[in-house]
Amino acid sequence: MSTQVHATIDESTVREISDRLGEPEWLLETRLDALAALETLDFPDVIRTPGRLWTDLTNLDYENLVDPLNAAEEKDQVGPDEVEVLSFAEAIENHEDLLRERFGSVVDPQTNYLTALSTALFSTGTVVYVPEGVDAEDVTVRTRMNSRSLFNYTLVVAEESSSVTLLERQSTDDDVEGSRYYSGVVEVAAGENAYVQYGSLQDLNQETYNFQIKEGVTDTYGQVDFIDCNAGSRLTKSTVEVHLDGDSSESRIIGAFYGHDDQHFDIDARVWHNDENTTADLVTRGVIDDEARSVYEGVQNVGRDAWNTSSYQRENTLMLSDESEADASPKLIINNHDTEASHSATVGQVDEEDMFYMGSRAVPERTAKNMLVEGFYVPVLEEIEVDELREDFRALVRERLESRD
Q: How far apart are CA 201 and CA 390, in angstroms?
């Protein structure tokens, strides 16, 4: 590998982070195993579309970006009384057995170089535990990054017949000059007949390189929905995956992004149908302006034992300038003939007929285009159950539209 951030991060660094959090020996060993694996692990796969290699993360200056011992953040985490919303240190103290069982059970710490780096160096996190039979709304976790780098970990466990809707937000302060690096790992485990909607709103400043991986797993009749909204960062590599491991389990993966200036978004959505009677719906909509770039890869993987599968995927990107660049690569992998599945993707400019119609009704061109962009997001926004996430992303879109020249 051309990048060797582990040359400046050693065992003493990892031990100091673990000691500050008061971690048990098993977790320290997990960190040290991840650190050792950096020598051999590859970086995340690079999406290839005709004539283009998209997001190669190997050339980032990790040696200067990664400063784990000086990590700092403001974190606000709240939820109803019947749900436990714990800092990572509190989770170690109160639910070590749960943590030991679930940590790394959905996202393999050694999936790639960057997940191993996150496992070795994370210094902040949240554990959301929803007991059996509890229905909870309005769990909110807000993280404000106050340092050059921050490694964050989130675990959501919903026990049998429980439900929870959760919003996690990431932002940055303005006190650190120059480039930054944010890394987030999210694991969601839904028990039998449990429901989780996890929403994320990423609004990091445009000097931040952002790597996030979010994965969920379902039991029988379980459902995990992800809402992944991206508006900030200089470069984002966001991967969302759900493993439908239980009979009659379901998932929706909803994505929305808005890129302007020279932002770069690399969005992956994947679902694995591993048991019978499973259903998945993947919907992503993005807008790019100025010299922004975006690429989307969606994968529906239907396993040999996934009888009676229903799986659908739609991705649409709207380009507001001739200098912007976008592409999409939807994929179907079907290993069971008892499957109903489809996938589609479009990339294009604002429809000229729509603009002509609006103009014929005396709507100014800029107003018409803004109205069409806001309407473009409606199918995504309607899927969001958390009011704060829906309204704040809509406000970010309006703010950017109003700032266009």
A: 9
* Sequence letter at residue 45: D
329-332, long-range: CB < 8 A, 24+ apart: 329/47, 329/48, 329/49, 329/295, 329/296, 329/297, 329/298, 330/296, 330/297, 330/298, 331/297, 331/298, 331/299, 331/300, 332/300, 332/302
List Cα–Cα distances, 98 to 15, 186, 190, 278, 321, in angstroms.
22, 16, 14, 27, 50
Backbone angles phi, psi at 308, to 5 degrees: 55, 55
Q: Is 353 exposed, middle or buried (0-12, 13-18, 19+ CB in 10 A)?
A: exposed
Q: Between vectors from CA 369 to CA 354 and to CA 359, what angle results, nearest 5°?
A: 55
**What domain range includes position 196?**
5-403
pLDDT in tens, 153-177: 999 999 999 999 999 999 999 888 8
Q: Which tokens hold the place of 360?
A: 């014929």
* 213 token code pair: 């991986």
- What is the rounded distance in angstroms from the CA atom of residue 59 to the CA atom of residue 46? 13
Name the residue with tokens 């749960």.
98
The answer to whether 124 and 151 are in contact (CB under 8 A) is yes
Contact by Cβ (8 Å): 54, 47: yes
Alpha-carbon distance of 148 to 64, in angstroms, equals 9
Query: CA 140, CA 119: separation in Å to the nearest integer?
Result: 23
DSSP 3-state of 229: strand
Total number of domains constituting the chain: 1
To which residue do tokens 């050693």 refer?
Answer: 10
Number of residues that make up the chain: 405
What is the tens place of the pLDDT at every residue in 197-228?
999 999 999 999 999 999 999 999 999 999 99
